[in-house]
Amino acid sequence: MIHPQIYVGLKLKPKQVNLISIFEMVCEKLKVHPKEVKGRTRFEEIVRARIVYSILALNSGYNLREVGTLINRHHASIIHYKEEFKYMKYNPRLEEDFNKCRV
User: Fold this and answer.
1) For residues 67 and 75, what is the distance between their CA atoms, to the nearest angstrom?
2) DSSP one-letter code for 40
């Protein structure tokens, strides 16, 4: 379970509890710390975690703003992640990470 202080200051709608569980699941399965995913780091494994979280959240019906808010990203970053995901077949590590997290 992730420490609750990570979510202080976020204005979450009841629907977004599921969004948090998606985020926690991705962090747990990919073994990355939530603060790193929400931070500014651009290490490949952290960016892959952001992409996987974004795609799973978008597929669950959340909009770009809701998905981006949880990881401190602008909606344009989420659009970029969607574009990166289209080329997953050229990035076997991204495909492997996505398959680990798919439910």
Assistant:
1) 8
2) S
Closest CA to 58 of 86, 78, 30: 78
pLDDT digits (tens, 9 = 90+) for 9-64: 555 555 555 899 999 999 999 999 999 999 999 999 999 999 999 999 999 889 99
Structural domains in the chain plus CATH codes: 13-101 (1.10.1750.10)
For residue 48, give Cα distances in angstroms to 52, 61, 79, 96: 6, 20, 14, 10
Q: What sign results for the dihedral spanned by CA atoms 94, 21, 78, 69? A: negative
> CA 60, 84, 70, 73 torsion: positive or negative?
negative
pTM: 0.83
C-alpha triplet 94, 98, 99: angle, nearest 5°: 120
Torsion angles phi and psi, residue 19, rounded to 5: -60, -40
